[in-house]
Specification:
14% of the residues lie in helices and 29% in strands. The protein is built from 2 helices and 12 strands, in the order αββββββββββββα. The protein has helices at 2-25, 176-179; strands at residues 34-35, 59-61, 77-80, 86-88, 93-101, 104-111, 119-124, 126-128, 135-136, 141-145, 156-163, 166-168.
């Protein structure tokens, strides 16, 4: 009899957890969020002109899409950045959200000319200096890194990318020359006469 009650209680607990996970995983639209696996999405144009923070910041954690919408994963990229570092728009667009979510400053920017629905980048935790509706250019400051609120062991910026309800790899926005590590090299100019 005691074993039956224990099994019944465990099944009930599992149902409650399943409902809670499903409810938490749904975006405001009510539709499940999907994930595009790395390397399979070709609809992301490399339109980024700057990193969100610094010049070639250290990537603390890469994009790790979960195998299903409700599985564990990492829905963006974590970039090392000390508190007070300017957070910049990676490409031109319009601020679609600027405010606090769960105690963290968040900025979302819909990127210009990226289709319907447009690509949307997100940055957190940010002390926001823009407002909803502002038009921003690539490299324009959206705010600064907040000293608290990041989920990294050191302060960082979580940078995300979505098209509608589909999460994508934010690094796919950056052209190869911005992603490469190592110093810039000047090549000799051949066949051009020296100025007199």
């Amino acid at each position: 009899m005691r074993a039956k009650r224990c099994v019944g209680a465990c099944v009930g607990l599992l149902l409650v957890l399943a409902v809670a996970v499903t409810t938490c995983a749904l975006p405001p639209s009510g539709r499940p969020v999907t994930f595009a696996p790395t390397g399979t999405d070709t609809s992301v144009p490399a339109i980024g002109r700057v990193w969100p923070v610094g010049i070639r910041p250290q990537v603390l954690r890469t994009w790790e899409p979960p195998p299903t919408p409700y599985a564990r994963g990492h829905r963006g990229v974590d970039l090392a950045a000390p508190p007070g570092t300017p957070v910049r728009a990676v490409a031109a667009g319009r601020v679609s959200f600027a405010g606090r979510v769960a105690g963290k400053g968040v900025v979302s920017v819909e990127l210009t000319g990226t289709g319907d629905p447009p690509l949307r980048t997100t940055y957190e935790p940010v002390q926001v200096s823009v407002k909803k509706g502002d038009e921003v250019e690539a490299g324009e400051v959206l705010g600064t890194v907040e000293p608290t609120g990041s989920h990294c062991t050191a302060t960082c910026v979580h940078w995300g990318l979505r098209r509608g309800d589909t999460y994508l790899d934010p690094l796919s926005l950056l052209p190869p020359w911005l992603l490469r590590r190592g110093p810039s090299r000047l090549l000799p100019v051949l066949g051009v006469p020296l100025p007199s």
